[in-house]
Predict the structure.
Amino acid sequence: MTDDLCFRPATELAAMLRAREVSARELLDAHLDRIERLDPAVNAVVTLDAEGARAAADAADAALAAGEDVGPLHGLPVAHKDTHATGGMRTTWGSPLHVDTVPLRDELIVARYRAAGAVRVGKTNVPEFAAGSHTFNTVFGATHNPYRHGLSVGGSSGGAAAALAAGFVPLADGSDMGGSLRNPAAFCNVVGLRATPGRVPTWPAAMGWSQLSVQGPMGRTVADVALQLSVVAGPDARVPISLSDDPSGFAAALPERLDGLRVAWAPTLGGQVTVDPAVTDVLASCVGTFSDLGASVAEDCPDLAGADEVFGTLRAWLFEASFGEISRRTPEKVKESIRWNAEMGAKLTGPDLARAEQLHTKLHERMVGFFERYDVLVAPTTQVLPFPVEIEYPTEIAGMHQDNYLEWMRSCTVISATGCPALSVPGGFTPDGLPVGLQVIGAARADRRVLEVGHAFEQATRFGEHRPTL
């Protein structure tokens, strides 16, 4: 029963807690036991506060027994990404510069989980300063894929994805600039949502108008992600791009049919990215599921011209602003890929940024036109399969050389540039058992639509129910 609890959907566990079929303390102890037994080989949870979590779980049980109103995530264990500030709990950003940093307060997304009743267990591993889609750092080492030890979990929310896949927590959070919620979800057979920028407001933030990086939820099912979105989304006056919509509707029941839906399938994003045939072979075999669910499917792709320049320029600008000074002051304590990206940002000119914004505007207009013809775009989440943890990033895909640590992530980075919501859902397995993710992309602000499509696909295929053997 202990391990069975650890793999039940969060939505089901929430109902069990409210019905008092299981206590928050029992649920927590089941997860803590699994972390103690299995995480040493996975290295997903890098900071653990078992005693603090037990106290919070006991308080949750007492509140329910007293008849108090409780939140939507009442009693559910959660682990926060180690780039999200947690009051009173170490937050390292995967950097040797912050091995002893303990923030005084929670940042907004963490505070919203707490306010909704979630029980904070600890922090999940990240690459240094969340740079790159492979989770390793000099502070904690590499996180291993629960489906095959020795392989990457992706990143930068890799510890979160691994913790979910391994049954260490039912809820987790992350962030996504160039695929950091989607890539690890694909590598670990879980679900990650990059919501429309502003849907989940980030605070505090040094550059509050930027729309390139977002925070958001991860889970083992789409409904679990939707439940979390209903509490971490919503406006905040301190965040200038935050959306004003009431987020409670995200938790409503999701459909299992897609009758009349118009789906565009883009196995290589219109030939604009190189994808390992092992990935496209798996996904091509299941795209017919959308037709079975009542949708029409056509192979098509929006014009993504300029997306690479938009993403590359805006990312470099942000990296110079965030890490330029640190890279120059203590270069030996910052990994080379961060220094490289910050140096690129330092070389940018005003005209460079203006051109990127002009291309960004044109890209948005083309995406609007595309989603007048289709309801969703589906494509591979990643261009490669999970690779050995010793490799910093793939330098070749299907015979094509990759110039830097961003090139192999383009199936996600070009979508980030569009500002559209994108969901990675389990898309199947290779013949030798490695997970593959399917990316479901919708029009700007159509976050509910991508959740609906992802849920229907998930329920029809059941790929997410295949658990790793640890």
Remarks:
- The domain at 2-465 is CATH 3.90.1300.10 (Amidase signature (AS) enzymes).
- The longest strand covers residues 422-429.
